[in-house]
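Form 12-C: Joint structure prediction
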Amino acid sequence: MGSLRACFVALFVLGAFSAFGQNWQSSYEQGLLAARQSQWTNAREAFLLANKARRGDIAVATNVPGPPTERRQWREGSAYSPRFLAAYAAYRMGLETSDEAMRNSIFTSAASELQSLVNAGQAGNETYYYLNVLYSRLGDNEKKKALDVKYLATPASGNWRVDNQILAPEDMALIRPANGGMGQPAGIGTGSTTTTITAGSPIPTTPGSVATVDTKFALIIGNSEGGGLPFAVNDARRVREALLLHAGYPEANVVKLENVSAEQMLTAATELGARIPQEATVLIYFAGRGTHVDGRDYLAGADKGDVIDGMLLKTELFRPFVSKGARIFSYFEAARPVEEDQFFGKEIPSGGAISQMQATMPGGIVGRMVRDGVETGVFTEAFCRVLAEVRSNQIPVMEFGWQVFYKVRRGDTGTTGGGSQQTPTLPVLSNLAADARF
Amino acid sequence: MRIRAKLLVTILGAFAAAFASAQIPDTATSLETGAAADGAGGAFHVTNADTQSGYWNPAGLGYVNTRQVGITYRHSAASRTRVSGTYQAQTRETEAESGAGEIGHIGVTIPASDIKKGAEGTVGVSFTRGGQVDDVGIGPVAGLPDVGGPVRNYVERRKLKVDFVTVAYGKTNRSQNLSVGAGVVIAQAKVAYSEAGTAIPGSWAPTSVSSNGTGVGVIVGAQYVPPKSLNTSFGISYRSEINLRGNSSTSNLYDKVPSRLVIGAASRRDGLRRGKDFLVYGAQFERYGPGTRSAKVDRRAQTGFGIGVEYHYSLGSADLPIRLGYRSIESGGNDFGSRNALTYGIGYQPNNKAYSVDLSFSRSGGKTSFGLGATFRFK
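Section 2 - Result
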């Protein structure tokens, strides 16, 4: 009799058991499974379904039912991010779409969804990163800037934890610093002291450019002719691309000169100086030939070679910017032969806020290499690669200098050991703090 | 204030009872199995999920998602009784003893998907010793009078071992808020009773009976975790009465295993010590149905309960569960006394390791017994 009663109870419980249940977990996990198989449409549908069953993203670990004596956390404490992952899946769908109009439509939806997370204060660094990428792809600079402002204005920006298990590893390498901490997403945010520069990885192929900053200007000069470096023009082009893509310099604010005379250099500097606002940031990159005479540094023009009259005083190049109170970050890729204790770069300007970094030590040469079939300077290669790894519009000058130093010294030999015979200097700062950013 | 005083007196009385007993401590139907939960008064058995779930509440198997092997080793139940008075009207004074060590439980859990691909839920197979009495009664040197002369060298022994082999299955629903389970229970009861002494021809002679009875019953259970309170669990299980067969010589002493209803609740409080530790507290109520009314292994309906706490102290690389509880089971019949035990225990659960060990102690009737349990989890 007792057994019969127990069976009846069991049947009743089993009947009740199948009567209710929620499926947000299984939908979410189906989404992850589909994503791992690159089935982004299915993944998005599953994530939207999960969000419908259990609304909103949750940054903290989700406890799962079980015996109270065990602390069970869903997916080992991972955050629950159906809204973020649905938007991410849309982004990946867009990448796979060949039709431009369709792609833009998908990107717009994804951006809208990510923006709503930002607006709700539920955005991790991953959210900011992909939203930045999406605005870049959509060419929406206005929203990019607004996003940047929002990121800076909110101290907790990017603190929201999201489930990032299906994100592309190459993106994760940029979103999170190599040390595993929560760094700011590449390409967004300024003024933060948490920017971490990582070294040793190849230039990542990341979509989109870093958000631009209107007060950043650059003057790039590459003089291959007139005794300059044969690859100086190539280097100037590479530096320009890197600044536009990875360092937040607006295209209109970057002036590139190739094989120009001293007079043309001065004219360009003067014109650019006239355009910049007070206390702007100016990056000067000079690849060519320099010399030092009577305590003064000169930059050789492409037209008159060794003739000192055909050279431009370095301080003259600085002057239009110094007069506007600009912070000048200068990089010189020029050989530095020493004659009677005289060498290029010896002159340290006393006025102005200026950083100077030389591609080689006094007496050193400037090495070259071939990258993608194009001859380029070892220093320029390191300079551009570090920019690509940092991907920030606020790069700390001294830390950047160290990374370039390491990269030049290591050459292509990996992360340890010395590969190059070239040894760059570290930035010499005049009236600038070590954490000044460009 | 009056209520508080009353409560205090009740608690103190209950704890005092843990240190003294004049009758056989009643472990015939409710015996500590040596599990971790025993350190916390057994308060978490019905809400737990481990290899003992088949015995306590098969619904717990639904929350076991790995292969596990569990084993416990503990003191067996034993007692010694001083018999005085006359043979017909005995006066008995019993003291609990720490019996020999023995296996209290062996169990395995196997996710159903390991048996059949795609299947859900978990199967558990276990052996558990759930009831035990081993009392030795010794008469006075002068013998027990009134059966035609004093019965000299009187030694009485009553033994009962009730073992349960359970094959059970538990499964949660999709949201995992509800788990149900059911199982088949095979019970084997070894019953023995003997009286030895100097025979009195025509009046009294030594006797001895023993048998092994076997029966089959079912157990069903459910665990429910409220969706809005995922740190809390409610459990209920019911094991049917099990009629024994093959025990004709002792059927007048013990011929059925009483039914058992267990209801309990447990809750966890997270966030202690900056989120490293957590505290679990719970209570379990047990109701045993009536068994055979007999002079030697009398079984009437019983009620028992356990309350306890478990504090999980994190060492970083391991958790140390520290347990404290109180357990009480009322007397099940003549010659048996209620059993009240103060329990405590500690465990060691290293992170990212396949094993955990637990040590539990139970102090009752002035004696302390221990249980040692180990669990191995295979992913």
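Section 3 - Comments
DSSP finds three helices and 18 strands in chain B. Helices of chain B lie at 2-17, 53-56, 112-115.
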